[in-house]
């Protein structure tokens, strides 16, 4: 990449191609190098000019987006942002696309398309920039390959773990690249450990499919959170897309509050909202983990958790798809320990 981000849009809707092209071209440093109606045209274009980022629809004529994504990843792995409709079927396919290597998903409704994309253009631009940043991070990791193996994480200080086992809780926040990261961390967790609450930046209706996918991969129970759900050992609650999630203390333990509200740090759900509630409700019995993602959501909330006595961990730069969120948390002094993705589950086990 030369400093400018070359984007190829692949979508069978002429309206989507037009609006996305206009919005992306309005942003400095982004060039739309092509906008085509299906993957066959895209392959012809890419034989001449390979883009830095592909914005890809999933349901198209002649070849579906998931098949095309897999072809891209076989030939030349390239950051791909999925632009998918808000349906259950599309959500399921989008989870397959993320597993196949897509960086993130942007949702589009089946009606009111032009107004929606115009209103959400900031999210689309951010997704493209994050995708481009993920390519730079991949090149950096490749250049570092062959270095020494990461050291095992030290045990959290005991003075941070004075709470009884039933008073402990794990809070995880992540964004771009987080779906892949969670598929590493959560399947490594053993049943019976502290309850886990997660905010993953993801569109409405997509988190249920994501939670269901994780549930098939994990020994712990994973589900999309509903208002009032208890936080139980061996269970993981994923914040639903489009709604905030807080942890509250009850006489019988911890429960989650799922609620509407304005975006925080441009996100709903927001990692900061979750972390701040955990700082207040759980305090020193909590472990906070901030993982890969663009922006600074979660950094201030993690600092509040640390000040409340919680142990706090950030995914290290070498294993992040995008290091933005962990980097901001480290810069604020919110982090006790940086850890590679492969060792985060071990840190969680030590906390339990």
Automatic annotation (TrEMBL):
The keyword Phosphoprotein applies. It catalyses: L-glutaminyl-[protein] + H2O = L-glutamyl-[protein] + NH4(+); [protein]-L-glutamate 5-O-methyl ester + H2O = L-glutamyl-[protein] + methanol + H(+). The active site is at 175, 201, 297. The modification 4-aspartylphosphate is found at residue 57. Gene3D superfamilies: 3.40.50.2300, Methylesterase CheB, C-terminal domain (3.40.50.180). PROSITE patterns: CHEB, RESPONSE_REGULATORY. NCBIfam families: PRK00742.1, PRK12555.1. Involved in chemotaxis. Part of a chemotaxis signal transduction system that modulates chemotaxis in response to various stimuli. Catalyzes the demethylation of specific methylglutamate residues introduced into the chemoreceptors (methyl-accepting chemotaxis proteins or MCP) by CheR. Also mediates the irreversible deamidation of specific glutamine residues to glutamic acid. This is Protein-glutamate methylesterase/protein-glutamine glutaminase. It comes from Paractinoplanes brasiliensis.
